[in-house]
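## Example record

The block below lists the input lines for one assembly entry, exactly as stored, with component labels intact.
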Amino acid sequence: MIYRRFSEKEEAVFEGIMELLRNGNNPYKITVSEIAKSANIGKGTVYDYFSSKEEAISMALIYNIQKDIATVKNLVIRENTFRDKYFKIISLLQENIENKYSTLSLATNYKELDEIFNHDLDTKRDPGFFITELESIFSIIIDKGIEEKIIYDNETKYYQISAVRSSISGYLGYISHRECFPNIDEEYAKDVSYKQLIKMLK
Amino acid sequence: MIYRRFSEKEEAVFEGIMELLRNGNNPYKITVSEIAKSANIGKGTVYDYFSSKEEAISMALIYNIQKDIATVKNLVIRENTFRDKYFKIISLLQENIENKYSTLSLATNYKELDEIFNHDLDTKRDPGFFITELESIFSIIIDKGIEEKIIYDNETKYYQISAVRSSISGYLGYISHRECFPNIDEEYAKDVSYKQLIKMLK
Amino acid sequence: MIYRRFSEKEEAVFEGIMELLRNGNNPYKITVSEIAKSANIGKGTVYDYFSSKEEAISMALIYNIQKDIATVKNLVIRENTFRDKYFKIISLLQENIENKYSTLSLATNYKELDEIFNHDLDTKRDPGFFITELESIFSIIIDKGIEEKIIYDNETKYYQISAVRSSISGYLGYISHRECFPNIDEEYAKDVSYKQLIKMLK
Amino acid sequence: MIYRRFSEKEEAVFEGIMELLRNGNNPYKITVSEIAKSANIGKGTVYDYFSSKEEAISMALIYNIQKDIATVKNLVIRENTFRDKYFKIISLLQENIENKYSTLSLATNYKELDEIFNHDLDTKRDPGFFITELESIFSIIIDKGIEEKIIYDNETKYYQISAVRSSISGYLGYISHRECFPNIDEEYAKDVSYKQLIKMLK
DNA sequence: CATGAATGAGGGTTCATTCAT
DNA sequence: AATGAATGAACCCTCATTCAT
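Predicted structure tokens for the full assembly:
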């Protein structure tokens, strides 16, 4: 999606913005002054590298979504079994969500980036980039499951991917509203999610 | 959550705000002038009924989420079979999402209401209200499925609810990113979602 | 200055305004809502009797200055000796000043009424009304002093009046900035003022 | 009271505000737009140097009171005789008062600065600063009078200072309401004031 | 008469953006 | 290249005034 390398200043701006978001700042309310201070550069410098505040924030988010997806992919690949891979991905997504500002929940709602920030980026050219990336990770997991014969390969690709998406969403729904499930602990919720995934794919 | 009745002007403001959102306005960028114009009242009048812009928008959203959930519930109850109820709910949620500004996706991310609008509402007192409401609808569907013996009752309540949430999320994921699935039509996606639900609960 | 009688509502407004001022409200910041509430009448009613907020406040002030001057005059006349009359007037002015909102200091700065409230009143017609009134009280005091032979009658009228004005101002200066004179008590300051008056008129 | 130096822009704001006041603008009604225009700077720039309109106005007034008192002091010191010093101070005060917006009458009513502008300044820390400054000038005059043996040194310091304050107030009362004294010319009023001063201190 | 709901002009303040240094 | 002082458009909100009831 964004292929070129970024200059030191650009990355400083990205990191400054993410720092602000991680500290609980509302992305629609952060100011250029705050960004500049957080990035340890002058306010005018932001405009030497970005043509508007919206662009800077949009690019910072996309940059981080990409980075986070890449990280998730690497760590999932590194796990050996189907079960470990699945538990890894839901743990990573959970971490991301709990990190106050979830780049990855933005990834699934990336339309917001365009609509809310009113800044076009390249989503027009490659609108499903993030989804595609995520689904490639899902594929890796499914392939492992088939290899391990834990799940069958008797459904369409769409069905399989959708099943992973569904079971993950189920777990993330629990995480996002844990207070609604006082009797359910994390372990159990993970097990339920895994069980549902297998049932769907058997 | 909000139990009292609203005055004519309050509802005009709510409707004005929803109209703006439906027309694609960014909720973080709409101005009091726009709200007043859209509601056909004077700017000052907004402040006779709400103490701030944030309050007006927050309340408009909550009001509409409640209304939309109630509508969904009524329409789902009205359907006769397990299958019809399930297809009804995913169709209604789809409609809501496609309406440009989805109150119900806000319902599942209602924390935003607090955090982004910085306005407390009553979510503090009853934070899981919307989720609880939605899950009561899921329960109705599950009960029907059990009654029809299409699904079994051999899993925990949490498992059952979570299964509905998962399979719905799966379908909504398709809807939200249809452009990523050029070969999949709506009918098929619905069928997949339904099949996954049944598999999880068998 | 204002000769006609005032209706019940008009006096309610006057009293409402004075109440607000006595409670420390800034006269340039009180609102019509506050005035109406303080006067226990509807906001619209204020405009049935006054053509603007400025007029209401101006008239309230003038009304009260007149009332206060009349009170001072009566109480000064009632005192029997030169000394008692002088001590009476400075005590009354002191009370007025210490009452948070001094109508009488406004009287000597009545230009403010016009300039600050931008409302013409009748000061154009009778600009020195208050001053003249106050000086008639000073005259009464002087006459008594001459009668008692405590002071002589060998200076011009202007000189005599000016002497009273000066010695009173001297005392009020002390009252207004008592914190600057930690070692001077009220009694002593009054005695000094009286002594200065006599010296000027001997 | 305010010891630090002011930047060019700060002084521009001060001068802009004073210009507005000298032109008869009500200090409670001047707007930030007017201030900015009068100071030849942008509206936003005011807020780079002052945190609110009230602060800007309060500081402008205090700054000018200080400057004016310092000027008065210098010019009074420069005069050689008791009589010249006294005539100098009343002339300077007269000028100040006639300048439409009298900083020095504010000095004697400096509580207004706090109360009316609702802005704290340092008056809390040093409430009598202006009064003390003025009285130090009065002292200079008195000392000269004693040196010249025109007045005696047989009264308390408070009495002496109070006498100067009184006689000055007497003259300023004439100036402020000249229309009430159609037969009295300025020269005569000054002579009366001077005579009263001497009588009080003999 | 009396009211207070409704209005919208106008105010203080913020902040994205520019540009001289 | 980097800065931050300066700007002014645009926002939220207040409140004097009106007018239908």
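The first helix of chain B runs from residue 8 to 22. Residues 62-201 of chain B form one domain.
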